[in-house]
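[audit] Reproducing an earlier prediction to check determinism. Same input, same settings, fresh worker. If the C-alpha cells differ from the archived copy the diff job will pick it up downstream; this log only records the rerun itself.
[audit] input (353 residues):
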Amino acid sequence: MVIKKSQQNMDIIYLCKVFGIVFILFHFFVLTPSFAKESVLQQLEKDFKKVVITSRPAVVKVIATHHTTTQFPNNIRKMNVSQQSISSGIILDKNGHIVTTTFDFLPNAVEVVLNNKKRVPAKFIGMDDLTDIVVLKTENKMPFQVKQGNTKQIDTGSWVLTLANSRGSHPIISFGIVSGMEILPDRPCDELIKINTPISPGNSGGAVINTSGEIVGMLLAVLSEPHLPDPFMSQFPFPAFNRPGIAFAVPIETVKSVATEIIEHGKVRRGWLGVTIETKDFGVFVTRVNENSPAHKSGILPRDVILKFEDEPITTYTQLLRCVGTKRPNTEIKLRINRNGNEQNYTIKLGER
C-alpha cells in the first residue's frame, strides 16, 4: 500500500514537471514569437541602439574659430587667416550651459551644433586648468538634460559607450571596456576613468555612457605610444595611421562639481600651500617655502619632509598637489612633518591657488 502511494506521488510530480516544461515552451514560442525569433546578438543590438538614441541629444559639436591677420613682407598686402578646431561637448542643464575641454588656441568665436543640426553661438564662461574643463553658455534653452550615472558603480570590466563628434554630420560612436581608475601626472586632481576604446580627433569633450544610458564621464585625453616614421611606408602616398591609444575620462561627478564652481564663481577655487618640493627616497622634501604663504605663516621650513596630509601618506608631488588642490581656500588642514628626525603636526589654513 505504501509503495502504491509513493508511486502515485512520483507520477504526479512527473506530470507536473512535464506540464511545466510544456507551459514554458508554449509561452516562449507562442506568446512571445518575436523574442523567440531573435538571436542574442539581435537583442543586444536593439539595446545598444536604444542607449545611443536616448543619449545622443545630450552631446553636441563645439566649433572654435580664431581669426588673425597676417602681414606680408614690405607691406604688400594683408591676409585674413582663420583657424578652426572641432571638439565635443555635453549639455549640462536646461539653461544652456555646456561643458567641454580646453581649446588648442584662444578662440574669437565659438559655435555649438545641436543634435537637430541647429548652430547656435556660445560664450566662454570659464575654465579649470587642472582638469581642462571648460564651461560654455548659449542663450538657447535646452530641453535635454544629462541623465547622470554613478561612477562608483563602474569598475574594471564594465562596458561603456563613447559618444562624441568629429568632422561630418554624424557622431562618432565607440564601444569599450573600463580598465580601472588612474591618476595622470599632469591632471592630478582626480582619478580618471581608463577606457580601452578607439578615439578619433574631435572626440575630446564627448560622453562616456554606461549600459543604462547614463553619462558617467567626459572624454579628456588619449595616451598613445610615439609613432616613429617607417621608411618603407613613407614611399606610399597615403598618410600613416596613428596607433590606437588609451582613453581617459573625467568622472561626471567631477565634471558637474567643477562646472558648478565655474558657473557660480567664474573659476574653481583651489587650495594653495606655497612650497616647492622634490620627491626623494625618504619622502617629499621641501626645497623652498614662499614668503607670506600659508606654509610660511605656519612655520614650515626648507628641508622639512612632508609625511602625511591629514591622514593620507604623501610620497609624491602628484599626491600632494591633488590633496591641496581638491581643498577649498581657507580650509584648515593638518600636515605631518619630519624635521631633523623629529615628527610633529602642523595645522595650516590654505590660501587660494
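[audit] rerun output stored. Observation attached for the diff report: The helical segments are 2-31, 33-37, 40-55, 252-265, 294-298, 317-325.
[audit] end
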